[in-house]
Amino acid sequence: MILTVTPNPSLDRTYELPGLTRGTVLRATADRVDPGGKGVNVSRAVAAAGHRTVAVAPMGGPEGALLTRLLGDLGIEAAGVPIAGNTRINVTLVEPDGTLTKVNAAGPELSPAEAEDVLEAVRIHASAADWIACCGSLPRGLPPRWYAELVERSHRAGARIALDTSGAALTAALAEGPDVIKPNAQELAEAVGRPLATVGDALKAAEELRERGARSVLASLGADGQLLAEASGAYFATAPVTAVRSNVGAGDASLAGFLAAGGRGPEALAWAVAHGAAAVQLAGSLMPTPADLDPASVVTTSDVPLDRPLSEPAP
């Protein structure tokens, strides 16, 4: 079972448009609403792959009630923590060429008591979890060290922790030794304070974060592939993508694939890449099912192409 923690969940509404013109009335050709937030997306991907998952998240108002119902419809056990504020709604506008325009709401402010209630909900469910995936930005009211506290408490309970966040929250949590962190190239660059132009630069940054406490680093490098740095060595993997329809939730699908495959080694990396490649070819934030996955197309190697330029260098 994979337990996910999403401190700032959302309802994600996606509109597909024939074009995006400012200052006009736009008519969508299709629209959908999905449960959202990075940890919730990991749960959705885990459930789509046929595994059990429990989603811990603060939920409030009619939006929170709808989020709980949508999770149940997907076969996800929702461990909702009641809060006074309303769960946020995010909007994504999709153009025919795949260009995305996203509007993310700030979300509610959690009180100290509500923040502690979320930690308690994690404790209650942690004993049954193979992995705990803590994902996304922190809402208002939670200090940067909140994830560090969660990692420390979960390790005390004997649980393995995967962390997907950035900025001060990531920096604070490194000292507690998360078992896996999952930055993208930009988050890697931010964490080490320098630009990344090549895969080799990304690997050096990943190893630096391991020296600062992370036990392994699963780094998403966009269209260039994914990089895994862990105690057994470094590995790099890529997969062909026919057409990108939406990259919303693709990184979360990758993390789900990685954890469901054991969370270590080149085989888990291959499943991470297979999930990410499948996700970007689906509409909105749909998560891939086993029928969408093509792990045989993934090329994994321990001969990391250090000199390969990143197609989108991280500033």
TrEMBL record:
Transmembrane segment boundaries: none
Gene name in the database record: pfkB
SUPFAM superfamilies, sorted: Ribokinase-like
UniProtKB keywords: ATP-binding, Kinase, Nucleotide-binding, Transferase
Pfam families xrefs: PfkB
Molecular function GO terms recorded: 1-phosphofructokinase activity
Domain named Carbohydrate kinase PfkB: residues: 14-289
Domain of life assignment: Bacteria
Record-listed E.C. numbers: 2.7.1.56
Organism of this sequence: Streptomyces durocortorensis
Family from the record: Belongs to the carbohydrate kinase PfkB family.
Xref: NCBIfam families: 1-PFK, pfkB
InterPro entries (alphabetical): 1-PFruKinase, PfkB_dom, Ribokinase-like, Tagatose/fructose_Pkinase
Protein name: 1-phosphofructokinase
